[in-house]
Amino acid sequence: MAVLGFATTMAVVTGLIHLYLWKRLIRDTTRPGRGRRVGGLVMLALAVLVPATLVGTRSGVTWLAWPGYIWLAVMFYLLVILAVLELPLLPVRIALRRRSRRPAPRPEPRPEPALVGATEPVASSPADPEPARPGVTDPAERTAAIDPSVPPPATPPAGPAPDHDPQRRLLLARGAAIFAGLTAAGLTGYGVRTALAPPRLDRVQIPLAKLPRSMDGFRIATVSDIHLGPLNGRARTERIVAMINQLDADVVAVVGDLVDGTVGELGPAAAPLRDLRSRHGAFFVTGNHEYYSGAEEWIDELGRLGLRVLQNERLEIAARGGVLDLAGVNDVTGASAGPGSGPDYARALGGRDPGRPVVLMAHQPVQAHEAARHGVDLQLSGHTHGGQIVPFNYLVRLQQPVVSGLGTVDGTQVYVTNGAGFWGPPVRVGAPPQVSLVELRSA
């Protein structure tokens, strides 16, 4: 139901977006006729494709994934680029409209020809043709020139100027559409290449005041948001596991959003996780997408693969002559899954030795506000994807206190990894996929 509600909201939003794209890319760039009708039908089909992909891929219709999600990325960039172009193009459009409404200048009146010769009119025979006057060709004007009592023909009133500006407006709209289309396609192509590339390794050193000197250099391999699904399969998991195993980590922390599908659909894709190696084990906390994919089944499956799922609990890691508390809380989305499924900080962090450092695994950075109230020294999170697609990262900042990298929330240090996969479009621009090695240092 959550997915269906999300898809419905997306259908409304994308419908409005496609209406705008139709106006700028189809109506403004074509003349009425068959071409415009065909373009309108194509835009309508693309508008239907987006919600159909979101629902269809969840229902096993995987062939929709590539065209649907690629178009979603192109659509996003077309919207952004065209919206940015509105400001500089607005005065040009206004000027062209004003020019098309400007009345045509009135023609200069022709001077009345002066009579040369006798002061008295000379009668002429009806048989004789009327002599032509130089410069006078219209019969009425010729009559007026000969007989002053006949009024000259009235000058026609000035009308609107011939509208040459529609062609200019058409060229302007086509230029903007071509620029937006090429830029959106280029950014999407670059983003696909980045998203499908091997994750980059981010090494970060974080000082903890309470960390014993003997534990200086304790290493936590951190990964999140792998998002196994129709576009991310077993090969992606194998690549990530191989990368983590080369880090010689003390602990592996998988901080949520591992899957976008059920165990039946994605169990084989997750199976390589059983090969994760570290000195003190691999640990997992739920992300919001686990609750869309059957969290209880996945908790059991990950336990079978050798990962310990920390569900609002804490354990002691004794290493190098010192002790570190490692805790994990459920994602905030779990609260909607039933009693006891949401995060419980008191259960995970209560009753511990305050002299020991504590590292909390929590999927969303926003959970750090509550973690800080319980004296957490460091929180490891994911969820944001680093924004995944610039400039979407600016919208993520409205929801999360830290988008990528190391930050501080209410006195608690928060490290957010970009994630090793992607959600939705297989596109990453400005936020490459990432596996992080967090090295703790004694202050």
UniProtKB/TrEMBL annotation:
Residues 149-160 have a biased composition (Pro residues). One of its GO terms (cellular component) is membrane. It comes from the Bacteria. CDD domains: MPP_YkuE_C. Residues 100-166 are annotated as: Disordered. InterPro entries: Calcineurin-like_PHP (IPR004843), Metallo-depent_PP-like (IPR029052), Metallophosphoesterase_sf (IPR051158). The chain crosses the membrane at residues 6-26, 38-57, 69-92, 171-192. Signal peptide: none annotated. The keyword Oxidoreductase does not apply. Keywords: Hydrolase, Membrane, Metal-binding, Transmembrane, Transmembrane helix. Its cofactor is a divalent metal cation. Pfam families: Metallophos. One of its GO terms (biological process) is lipid A biosynthetic process. The keyword Translocase does not apply. Belongs to the metallophosphoesterase superfamily. This is Calcineurin-like phosphoesterase domain-containing protein. It comes from Micromonospora pattaloongensis.
